[in-house]
Design brief:
Helix content is about 40%, strand content about 25%. It has helices at about 1-10, 55-60, 80-95, 115-130, 140-145, 190-205, 210-220, 250-275, 275-285, 300-310, 320-330, 335-340; strands at about 15-20, 25-30, 30-40, 40-45, 50-55, 70, 75, 80, 105-110, 135-140, 160-165, 170-175, 175-185, 205, 230-235, 245-250, 290, 310-315, 340. α3 (about 80-95) packs across α4.
């Protein structure tokens, strides 16, 4: 039997997938992360055919002709467009699979903690239709905690704040289970949207979402910085309708992001209030770990420290925490049996 199992392990390319609102990451057992692409698909409305997927589709965002449409099949952490999600998954899985197409992989997928049974089933069905053999779903906060190397199997409180593209998941984990969790649909995408609205209101100028994301990455922050930053932005002047350039600085963008940052602080405080006292005592010692792309917002850790008086840490590779955690679970079958929900 041993020989057969080894053969199977050798051929089966088991996968872990972080099916995110903003990005999809794929991890292959024994190989690590093999793909990291935006969760976007470009479709030709005339033929219904997919023209581009991932980074290639994102590069065309806001620049497509009338018959082409860019779809983000995931919205707020759940599948908004089932067919497109399935095609996108198939495309990503196909790109990462080597020759042995006949063996169906086991797939572990990270999902937001508060999605409904129907939404869970949709994720599972999309993976099965994309040729998975078995599908395990694991909460993103749990996956992120494992990916950030927290001692989740021990009896002790670990608090994770996973700020993704469409959802922010906050969870307190102990003994391989989630004790309290809260998921809100306010995350990195809302930050971009807040920047678009702020510039529209203050300067009467319209910028695209890719520009807003660049601004957030370059000069966005949640707490005053040591050095002032500014950048030139280009967009369309709404009063004259012509293209225009202007300079914005970090304090303006901080003001633009304030509402979103407040919402994140609220959800963390709310979760802390619902945490059992024994676990609260652990969190005072161990602090809170931030992961997900939103954790990269400058000085967000300082701001959280200021608001909660707790130690705050940023995961080593916040963008990959969920997929790395799902990957570790894939390599550790007893843990998978314990925390993965095979539907």
């Amino acid at each position: 039997m041993g020989m057969l199992t080894n053969m199977y392990n050798y051929f089966s390319a088991d996968l872990a997938i972080d099916l995110g609102t903003a990005n999809t990451l794929v991890y292959i057992k024994g190989k690590g992360i093999v793909l990291r692409e935006p969760s976007m698909v470009m479709i030709d409305d005339k033929t219904g055919k997919i023209q581009a997927v991932g980074a290639e589709a994102k590069s065309m965002l806001g620049k497509t002709p009338a018959n082409m449409r860019i779809i983000r099949p995931m919205k707020d952490g759940v599948i908004a467009d089932f067919d497109t999600t399935e095609k996108m998954l198939q495309y990503f899985i196909k790109r990462t699979r080597s020759g042995n197409q006949f063996l169906k992989p086991r797939i572990v997928i990270g999902i937001p903690s508060e999605i409904t049974q129907v939404e869970r089933r949709a994720v599972r069905d999309a993976a099965l239709r994309a040729r998975a053999n078995e599908v395990f779903l694991i909460e993103q906060a749990m996956a992120a905690a494992i990916g950030a190397d927290l001692p989740i199997t021990e009896p002790g409180g670990n608090m994770v704040v996973d700020i993704g593209g469409g959802t922010t998941d906050v969870a307190v984990i102990s003994l391989s289970g989630i004790v309290v969790a809260k998921s809100i649909r306010i995350a990195s995408n809302e930050m971009d949207e807040a920047i678009v609205q702020y510039i529209k209101k203050k300067y009467n100028m319209l910028i695209g979402e890719r520009s807003a994301e660049q601004i957030k990455i370059k000069i966005g922050s949640a707490y005053p910085m040591d050095d002032a930053l500014e950048m030139e932005i280009k967009g369309r002047d709404l009063s004259h309708g012509i293209p225009k350039t202007l300079n914005v600085n970090d304090s303006e963008i901080r003001e633009a992001l304030e509402g979103v940052v407040q919402a994140l602080i609220e959800v963390v405080k709310n979760t802390l209030e619902r945490t059992p006292p024994e676990l609260s005592a652990d969190i005072v010692d161990r602090g809170i770990i931030l992961c997900g792309g939103g954790a990269l917002l400058k000085n967000l850790d300082k701001r959280f420290r200021e608001e909660t008086s707790l130690p705050i840490f940023i995961a080593d590779d916040p963008l990959s925490s969920v997929v790395l955690g799902a990957g570790k679970v894939l390599e550790n079958l007893p843990l998978l049996e314990k925390i993965g929900n095979a539907l």
